[in-house]
Amino acid sequence: MSDQNASAGRPPSVAQALSRLPLSIWILLAGMLVNRLGNFLQIYLVLYLTHEGFSASRAALALGAYGVGSVLGVLFGGTAGDRFGHGRTIAVSMALSGLLVLGIVTLHNLPAIVVLAAVIGMTAQAYRPASSALLVERTPADHHVMVFAVYRMAFNLGTTCGPLLGALLISRSYHLMFYIDAVTSLLFAVLAAVTVRGDREHPAERPADTGSRSYAAVLRDRPYVLFMLALFLNAVVYIQHTSALPLQLRQDGHSTTVYAALLSLNAAVVICLELLATSYVQKLPGRLAVALGVGLVGVGMNMYAIGSAVALYVVATLVWTAGEMIGTPTASAYPGQVAPPALRGRYIAAAAVPMQIGYAVGPVLGVAVWQWSPAGVWWLCGLLTVLAVGAVLVGMTGPREPERAPDPAADRPGPAAGLPGQEDPATA
To answer: In what residue span(s) does the Major facilitator superfamily (MFS) profile domain sit (predicted)?
Structure first.
């Protein structure tokens, strides 16, 4: 590293982190932003199919298929990245996604559309563990939390602005929306292919896959399983802002405008302040940062039970937004840091799955509890948060030993030695 702060191992400032990002990471971030700006399929698929004459319930089947495919795609992407290289996985998944999206406009048979939506979900999400793995592998360890905050900013900017662009395109033509979606995916594929040129992870140089180099090895890592449990519980709590919160606002006599304003407040604060907050948060021990973030998300949700004044809703939203900013960058960086090198993609993918399940289960659970007792859902959030914080404090054991440069002497046979590099990642 180029200065005393970096050499001393102190976390970088925002400016320092940005100035030291390698070109390949800038390309990856640019590709992420472009891809999210053009990612319309999941948002507008139901509207498109109903516009084409399908009923809302039948159109929802295609959206559900896309969701199932997305979860499978994350798992497949983790495996593919570990085996074939993370840059290559991003390039292939985005290229396939872009080409397959074009097929939606040519199909008029619902079963075919449902199948294609599932396949698109798989290909469109396979890039995610690979992109996170590249961030870990191509940046210094003390930059990881800040780099993931930058990554989240690009993701959130694209996710916030993309639907607005999609609505503009739909006003002209639904087909135009799919064409732009395909173009942005293919552009991301090209940008990812550029990063492959500097990718040191050639398949031949990777440890051979064995039975221990699989998702079974991830599940044998008991502390990490607790960390995944915490992510699931936190997702169930966090997603209540899309399910129980609008119901609570309506019961308290507030309009949809208030709900939209609260969501806009969350998005604006995260986009504008998360990098600044991360410059301080990254100095905390990882488990403390994540536990604090998870705890504040739960406290914020719990505060919705206090009263019906708009000011209380604003304060509660700011509290769980602060928790999101404090905990998420560290929690995003942790899987890649703790993973054995040969399993990095799988560890990252395994952490994404419980969150997706939590986002799917959370609204159903939240609405059911709210119908039984409106205040009960917020107290349930508090209980789940206590369990999640405990799982974080026990499960986050800290990054494993960093990778060491190959030792030439290791190539010489020695007594009681196995093949060079044959370390069981499950016990690393």
So the answer is: 23-400
Band (pLDDT 50/70/90 cuts) for residue 13 is confident
Q: How far apart are CA 226 and CA 394, in angstroms?
A: 7
Contact (CB, 8 A) for 110 and 133: no
What's the average model confidence in pLDDT over 49-60? 87
Comparing 197-206, 236-245, 374-383, the range with the smallest average pLDDT is 197-206
Q: Is residue 137 in some structural domain?
A: yes
Q: Which of 44-48, 216-220, 392-396 has the lowest mean pLDDT?
A: 44-48
- 27 and 78 together in one domain: yes
Query: What residues contact 287, with CB distance under 8 A and at least 6 apart?
Result: 392, 393, 396, 398
- Please check whether residues 53 and 154 belong to one and the same domain: yes
Token digits of residue 361: 């289960």
* Domain membership flag for residue 293: yes
Q: Are residues 261 and 176 in the same domain?
A: no
Report DSSP state, residue 213. S
Domain that holds residue 375: 214-399
For residue 282, pLDDT over 60 is answered with yes
CB 396 within 8 A of CB 334: yes
- CA distance linking residue 287 with residue 331, whole number of Å: 9
The CATH number of the domain holding residue 96 is 1.20.1250.20
Are 231 and 172 within one domain?
no
Residue 285 · residue 393 · CB < 8 Å: no
Question: Does 241 share its domain with 145?
Answer: no
If phi over 0 gives left and psi between -120 and 50 gives alpha, with beta otherwise, what is residue 421? left
**Residue 80, Cβ neighbours under 10 Å: how many?**
23
Does the residue 413 lie in any domain?
A: no
- The answer for residues whose C-beta is within 8 angstroms of residue 23's C-beta and 6 or more apart is 198
pLDDT single digits (tens) 239-262: 999 889 999 999 999 988 999 999
User: Do 26 and 123 sit in the same domain of this protein?
Assistant: yes
Percent of the chain with pLDDT over 70: 86
